[in-house]
């Protein structure tokens, strides 16, 4: 049921007021700041979406995904044995197998995400979008970032 979308209301003055309040909050410092920054790293999808991606640059990206923070910094924070990695590696469907193999060889369980459905414009036929999604999943993607048609959104055609 998508009827609720047309009924969404944003209280813009309240949002602006809250944003101004956030700017006045005290900054997090010391160990808390380091903890929040390390947590932020674990929420990142490390991504390469270049037209000239190769297995070797995907392999380098996967190494960086497993080791996003320099070891000396992790040791200084006594976090070197916590297994801090990024949340996922995101690539085009054609590079999913490369990423899955690189992460498997590195002995880690970081999921591979893939953009699909006509990234970045979303201007491909539905059948092509579905085939691309299916292939990315078959290749080992555990997450799909789907692109929807902006023209349909702009015209309110949510169905």
TrEMBL record:
The keyword Cell cycle does not apply. Keywords: Lyase, Schiff base. Signal peptide: none annotated. GO terms for cellular component: cytoplasm. One of its GO terms (biological process) is deoxyribonucleotide catabolic process. Its EC number is 4.1.2.4. One of its GO terms (molecular function) is deoxyribose-phosphate aldolase activity. It comes from the Eukaryota. It catalyses: 2-deoxy-D-ribose 5-phosphate = D-glyceraldehyde 3-phosphate + acetaldehyde. InterPro entries: Aldolase_TIM (IPR013785), DeoC (IPR011343). This is deoxyribose-phosphate aldolase. It comes from Semnornis frantzii. The gene is Dera.
